[in-house]
From TrEMBL:
FAD/NAD(P)-binding domain sequence ranges: 7-326
Family matches, as InterPro entries: Class-I_Pyr_Nuc-Dis_Oxidored, FAD/NAD-bd_sf, FAD/NAD-binding_dom, FAD/NAD-linked_Rdtase_dimer_sf, Pyr_nuc-diS_OxRdtase, Pyr_nucl-diS_OxRdtase_dimer
Cross-referenced PANTHER family: DIHYDROLIPOYL DEHYDROGENASE, MITOCHONDRIAL, DISULFIDE OXIDOREDUCTASE
Cofactor: FAD
Protein name per the record: NAD(P)/FAD-dependent oxidoreductase
UniProt KW keywords: FAD, Flavoprotein, NAD
Species of provenance: Arthrobacter jinronghuae
Sequence similarity: Belongs to the class-I pyridine nucleotide-disulfide oxidoreductase family.
Positions of the Pyridine nucleotide-disulphide oxidoreductase dimerisation domain: 364-470
């Protein structure tokens, strides 16, 4: 491989790297993708797909139990082994043959090993066997190296063999007692999953449960976790973690008290995989998030593009939105921008143009697969106020919507919109409740399309569906 020249080098073959490379090849250029672990990245083997497989059976069972006729047909308990076996299938048994075959048919060249930038547009690759090769790109290098779990500096934690999301997601035997540090997205989803799979779960939520979602949505999740038997410790902060000779983990809390568990899962956020990438060569900090312009070109601390602008960063590693779909959206913009610049075509770098990722700032959708689920798009009320917008919000009880009451007995949930008073458009949407996931795309379209409320009145939701909450929200807003 040494001395190989290609049009574009992509470092990291997660969902984002794969999509950048695909766009490059579709645009008529050649691409080499470098991967140090499994082609498919975190999402395929340790994140999106396997976590949702761990959660799905319990969600289906819960749905059945809210319908008396169907509930009568289901009398047993969750088959945990069957859930884990299905999870294994969704993680492709941690084998990337299928994804490698996809790269091949897409015309993308795969090089396995750890990539590091050593000169302009030049990447050195160290294989698992220690062999070193170099590749040079004619046009661009794209960093799509993702993130890893961040371990907070809690005394004793690193020596207590803590789980990160990887160990939790690939679990083979459900522990009797699981302590989770961190009440964010990973913490709450894993508390939901492990509690349903039979573990006694304690969730240590120092900064509150899901502090970045609308408070009413988080409240529904806390109530549901507690009714499922999860101990939710809001405001508790671990001061020390130890594992004794018998294997029991002890989490000591600042201010008194401790939790004993068989395993401790650390879910306190992510750090970018930029520690050993040769970034110092470009005057960028090793281990830091990569700042980018709107076409995903890396920018330095002074806001300018270094060295002629051949370095791009897409996906988790730029910290804009740590979500697969948003990273793939960036990949499409970055891949097309690289092709446009390489071929001399115009670059549409204005807001909502083809080569920018404007939606990252305004219209990011997310579904948190807790019980109940939270579906959101755009800004929360607090986020909109922080962004300096003149906004108001309205909320509606989802249980009062005919479609929801039909969907499940005792349906409990809530939805809300955040309205920009100056433009009369929706800038944020949140729904919490059973099976609200599919509501989110309508909200994303309304926000990204900046559809005025006056026009939204003409988007009539079908009766009797849960989507009728849209009409109820408009009626509430008009009062
Ligand atoms: C538990 C969990 C659940 C999640 N669930 C969801 C979900 O339901 N929906 C959702 O949208 N998002 C979810 N996410 C987030 C999602 O996993 C990420 O947003 C997504 O994986 C980011 O993709 P990426 O390609 O940027 O990075 P990654 O998927 O992390 O891929 C980066 C790749 O780069 C490789 N790499 C790193 N450094 C190098 C190097 N120097 N040389 C060569 N290769 C390198 C890595 O091995 C990896 O394969 C979840 C995250 C976690 C932790
Ligand atoms: N369904 C989904 O879309 C999904 C699922 C899982 C993960 N993800 C993505 O993965 C990313 C990472 O998730 P995450 O849950 O690790 O991060 P997060 O940022 O959502 O939550 C981390 C939580 O840990 C807490 N925390 C931080 N340091 C702590 C400490 N020392 N002690 C106690 N608590 C501490 C924080 O207050 C925060 O609430 C998220 O940003 C999310 O976008 C998405």
């Amino acid at each position: 491989m040494t001395g190989t020249v290609t049009d574009v080098i992509v470092i990291g073959a997660g969902p984002v790297g794969e999509n950048v490379a695909d766009r490059i090849v579709a645009g008529g250029l050649s691409a080499v993708i470098v991967e140090s672990e499994l082609v498919g990245g975190e999402c395929s083997y340790w994140a999106c797909m396997p976590t949702k497989a761990l959660l799905r059976d319990a969600a289906a069972l819960r749905a059945v139990r809210q319908l008396p006729g169907a509930a009568a047909a289901v009398t047993g308990r969750l088959d945990v082994d069957a859930v884990l076996a299905r999870r294994d299938r969704f993680a492709s048994n941690w084998n990337d043959e299928g994804q490698v075959a996809w790269l091949q048919q897409a015309g993308i060249t795969l090089v396995r090993g750890h990539g590091r930038i050593i000169a302009p547009r030049t990447v050195e690759i160290t294989g698992r066997d220690g062999t070193v090769s170099t590749i040079t790109a004619r046009h661009a290098v794209v960093v799509a190296t993702g993130t890893s779990a961040a371990l907070p500096p809690i005394p004793g934690l690193a020596d207590a063999a803590p789980w990160t999301s990887r160990e939790a997601v690939s679990v083979k035997k459900i522990p009797e007692r699981l302590a989770i540090i961190g009440g964010g997205v990973v913490g709450t989803e894993m508390a939901t999953a492990f509690s349903a799979l039979g573990a006694a779960v304690t969730l240590i939520a120092r900064d509150g449960v899901l502090p970045r979602v609308e408070p009413y949505a988080a409240e529904h999740v806390v109530a549901s976790l507690e009714s499922a038997g999860v101990r939710v410790l809001i405001g508790a902060s671990p001061s020390e973690v130890t594992r004794d000779a018998r294997g029991t983990v002890h989490v000591t809390l600042a201010g008194g008290g401790s939790i004993d568990a068989d395993e401790v899962l650390v879910a306190t956020g992510r750090r970018p995989n930029t520690g050993d990438l040769g970034l110092e060569y470009l005057g960028l900090a090793a281990g830091g998030w990569l700042s980018v312009d709107e076409t995903l070109r890396v920018i330095g601390p002074d806001g300018t593009v270094p060295d002629g602008g051949w370095l791009y960063a897409a996906g988790d590693v730029n910290g804009r939105a740590l979500l697969t779909h948003q990273g793939k959206y960036q990949a499409r913009a970055a891949g097309d921008a690289i092709v446009a610049r390489a071929t001399g075509a115009p670059v549409e770098d204005f807001p909502w143009g083809r080569h920018v990722a404007t939606a990252d700032l305004r219209a990011v959708p997310q579904v948190i697969f807790t019980d109940p689920e939270i579906a959101s798009a755009g800004l929360t009320l607090a986020g909109a106020v922080d962004a300096g917008l003149r906004v108001r919000s309205v909320e509606y009880d989802l249980g009062s919507v005919a479609g929801a009451s039909l969907h499940a007995d005792g349906y409990t949930g809530r939805a809300g919109i955040v309205i920009n008073e100056d433009t009369n458009t929706i800038v944020g949407f949140t729904a919490v409740g059973p099976d609200v996931t599919e509501l989110v795309h309508a909200a994303t379209i309304a926000i990204a399309g900046e559809v005025p409320l006056d026009r939204l009145w003409h988007a009539v939701p079908a009766y009797p569906t849960i989507s009728e909450v849209w009409l109820r929200l408009l009626e509430t807003a008009a009062r």
